[in-house]
Amino acid sequence: MNSVSQIPQHAATPLSQTSSGSRLAAKLRNGEFWWRTLIWVILVAGSVVMIMPFVWLVSSSFKPENDIFIFPPKWIPDPWRPQNYVDALTYKPFNIYIMNTLIIVALNLVAVLFTSSLCAYGFARIKFWCRDFWFVLVLSTMMVPYFVLMVPQFVIFSRLGWIDSFKPLTIPIFFGGGAFNIFLLRQFFRTLPEELADAARIDGCSEFRIYWNIMLPLAKPALAAVAIFTFLHGWNDFIGPLLYLNSPEKFTVAIGLATFRSVMRTRYDLLMAASSAMILPVIVLFFFAQRYFIQGVVLSGLKG
Fold first, then answer.
1. What is the reported pTM?
2. Whether the Cβ atoms of residue 188 and residue 219 lie closer than 8 Å to each other
3. Long-range contacts, stretch 137-145, CB < 8 angstroms, 24+ apart
4. pLDDT given for residue 12 in this prediction
């Protein structure tokens, strides 16, 4: 009888523990839900704040000039003026500016993708004297601001006779391709199996052929990320063309947008339209290449 009477007491203990545990789990899940909701609200609010200037830019590109700076702002243009885009792109020779920019960007892409990947492969796969020291020395160049080197570089390029040409904006890129690009590609090459290179060496492949035929095709995600960075830098670069280009027929997109500002009168409606049109290629590029960009950054170990 005693043993039978004690059975419900022993059986009730795990049930109470189970119910209390389920309540605790429910509270934790509920707290996690509200915490996630708070994070999403903060992210959405931050995204809205960040995107508002871009929305105002696009909205102003369709407005008459007198409606751009009124307060409170009119987010929906009235009247709607798509003619601003036609006037903006014909007000200045943007066909020439775009062509000059694409020439510079194309040369920089070839230079960066080849030279930075070659240097990165050497630092990642080839053992040589003081390899780590030289790699740290290359990375240390990222700590030097561009404005410190601006005057010495201008003196060198002026004495070489490169002023008012694309040479200062393209030829130096062929010597290394940039420390950050070397670092990113080196990190990616280090993730590739060494057995692939060993098997190729057994078959008699040279080191350059291993780099060109085996490692480079496998590094397409990282190369895509580097290509996007290079395109954005070349498309948005303002300081370099401002320093070295003097002739209007050699101006780039960034300089062309700056020419809208005038001491006498600035056509802000055309400036907004031209700026919106010049942003479009960057948005399209990132939209179609974001998968490769994210994959290349993640696989190279650059997680922030």
1. 0.79
2. yes
3. 138/176, 138/179, 138/182, 138/183, 139/179, 139/183, 141/179, 142/179, 142/180
4. 47
